[in-house]
Queue: 2 jobs
Job 1
Amino acid sequence: MDQKRVLLIVGGGIAAYKSLELTRLLRKAGVGVRPILTQAGSEFVTALSLSALAEDKVYAELFSLTDEAEMGHIELSRSADLVVVAPATADLMAKAANGLAGDLASTTLLATDKPVLMAPAMNVRMWQHAATQRNLAALKADGVSFVGPDEGAMACGEYGPGRMAEPAAIFQAIMGMLGGARPLAGKRALVTAGPTVEAIDPVRLLTNRSSGKQGYAIAGALAALGAEVTLVSGPTALSAPAGVRRVDVESARDMLSACEAALPADIAVCVAAVADWRPAAAGDRKIKKDGQAPGAIALTENPDILASLSKGKARPRLVIGFAAETNDVEVHAKAKLAKKGCDWIVANDVSVAGTMGGDDNAVALVTKGGIERWERMAKGEVARRLAQRIAQELK
Ligand code: C5P
């Protein structure tokens, strides 16, 4: 990817700090980054940080004699293979949707003839406002691609959609759009992710703390290598990675049916934290509070999706499971490989605080041939490494 270049427009939002990490990821992958920092953006990150990480000059002003002498703004807008706006603020989206050109960032967006990817970031009410949604629709109709926003706690103290997608997810979307090597082109992949939700009655449920981050990152990494990916997901706060078809489910039984409907596939990666049991009798009436408290909720076993896919008639060529372990990680992973009938187990050590729901993962890849221990790394990096290994295996 040495010759590929991204023009990165950094808007004014608290998420701007994530664009420094994005710049680092792109540079590490050999992608050139030429930053444009808006005036509002410079309130959040400095031109110096951006320039140091991008290893390039930062452009900031439309009417700068020195900048214009070096590279005119029209030339700048076409100097890269892709224009990325991260964070794409409500203001930048509004300007681009309406063709305003009063500063360098908006002029660049109006003058460019290259594909544009936006990673929106704003307060939940600003995101949900009819004006922003109108601008979003207009930009999509103009051919602009989007990654995120995610749902979650916001720096302003509110909760909802509006958080900028994580740098790893933006990175993957960029790599997909830059069209790097696509060794998985023509291959179909099925990924399960997130928790499942099992009804106790129509309003109460049993679930777990899985965030879905690792599974979503794997779906995105496989898509970035050209695979046609179906992501069967329990409820999460994440947006589907670029180029991935997402099927939303709740219970383990729904997840199994959605997986079966997504076959045939060449690859299955089961990352979902499927509930092992569900309430045996979830009636269609709410259990009333008055009277005797139910002494216990009777449970019955859920189907094992990984085992069903591994042992089923339409078995994907490569079936991969995950194993969250707190002790004797590898011994348990080997036993699981045999029991589930899958090809690989990615064992992750959840005894390390912050792994569940966090951004890093320490994993070991257990195959019939042996064990590979990977150093602790970001979940996005684990996903990329795993996708590369899968591509190698299916070559
Ligand atoms: O059995 P255990 O939960 O330890 O195994 C974890 C692996 O099995 C994960 O890959 C998970 O996605 C998968 N699994 C499944 N269906 C279940 C339980 C686990 O697909 N009912």
Note: The longest strand covers residues 318-325.
Job 2
Amino acid sequence: MDEDFDTVMVEFDDETGVGTVTMNRPDALNALNGQLRDDIVAGLRRLEAENEAAEGVALRAVVLEGAGEKAFCAGADVGGFSSDSAGASSEPSHYEFIREFPVPVIAKIDGYCLGGGLETALACDFRLASEGSAVGFPEVNLGIFPGAGGVQYVTKLAGPAVAKELAMTGDHISAERAADEGIINHVYADDEFEDAVDEFVTDLAGQAPLAIQAIKQSAAMAVQTGLNEGVAYDGQLFAELLQTDDHAEGAAAFGEDRDPEFQGK
Ligand code: COA
């Protein structure tokens, strides 16, 4: 399945279960206008529909990337602020939609990842970057700040000093420094980037999908609640996983010394 929306391209690989959403406004460095925000959500919904005809879980992981040579996403479209300010609609924002999407979403960052582009990457489950990439929050130069939680996310990942440094200076930092600070998961040499991301994503897509989804839910709970409540929540998720066919398959495969085949059931 390949489908194009106005500002995103969507692909699904039914061998691996990996979906790809490509932000496709390369002439504007994939800056987020209202259409692109809507199309990211529409693209993810389109991928999720792959599960409807499947037995178990067809969609195992999603890669979010930017078209063109220069950017993942250069942030909010500077031309369109007043017309599509955050929170104007009752629909979930694309940030919320990614955060709550049941399947892991991997931000594949090759180039500039700035402002709302960095917040989009932070809403994803993983950030993988090429070594030439740069991240930052330039909003302060426009008299505003990252309005979709950028300071909150970076504070949780890297601490308040790094969050304030990024948001108050507006400076770009290298992917390597961002990885040292815990903002990016992995940085790869430019010539290894494509293969390394493919390998990471394909491995992730081969894991038991219901366990992966439970881990995403557990991690989301961990940042919102106290330890006792979080551990109790994990207990429920764990009890549910124990009942799944995939758990039986994983245990059988281990006993028979073969690779498991998980279906998401
Ligand atoms: N919104 C709208 N258009 C943008 C954009 C944005 N956030 N960022 C880049 N573009 C456009 C540029 O206007 C330019 O368009 P043009 O070719 O029609 O003139 C094109 O993308 C290429 O950008 P350019 O600035 O020429 O590339 P560069 O390599 O010199 O610089 C950046 C790249 C990312 C450093 C620079 O574009 C930049 O600082 N962008 C703004 C980032 C920002 O402030 N984002 C947060 C907004 S809250």
Note: Residues 28-29, 31, 74-79, 112, 114-115, 138-139, 142 surround coenzyme A (CB under 6 Å).
